């Protein structure tokens, strides 16, 4: 689905991404791991149109989408979430979801004057879909809660719910486990797996929690110093000497060598 070819992104003299080439296959849950500063989020931002590349190409289903702005990619079904959730804190959880679909009838002055029936009908349809999303994510009990009052994990589920309001094709998830307790992280993982298997979503996931990556992701891509270091199954990655040295650390390397687990 996504092909990134020889991508470079520099900020002045700093090269955040240096010749990265990756493929994300349709129907996969691809993990993207690496140490802080490896270039993972920058790569995400370039693919998602948040940042322009210095050079290189991004293709989606064979179409060149390099440099397209996020709203254009949104219409194509490519969405990106962020490490820090971007909810509308003063709106309810349900209202946050209902804000997502574009081209709503109530957005035009003409319709507010002359097509109020159509606006009400569409709002009922969107509300129904929002409630279905909340039930799918097992957070119906906070539907009327202000989004700003949610826990970190609930906010991550809300972000995931937003992608469901537009039937996304591919979703880039940036550190879904950051600030999330283990129980809710398990719920998030369950939701990602279900969306993948039941609704055909493709995911690319940045995450530092290797247990989480190992549970849901195949394959796993490793970045270090702005470059792709390795790609393979989570089990293969955990045994890769270069990855252990560059990312997982010598402490884990000793455990792996001794036959332990991380």
Automatic annotation (TrEMBL):
Record-given protein name: Branched-chain amino acid transport system ATP-binding protein
Keywords of this entry: ATP-binding, Nucleotide-binding, Transport
Molecular function (Gene Ontology), one example: ATP binding
Entry keyword ATP-binding: yes
Iron among keywords: no
Domain ABC transporter, residue spans: 2-250
CDD domains per record: ABC_Mj1267_LivG_branched
CC annotations in GO: plasma membrane
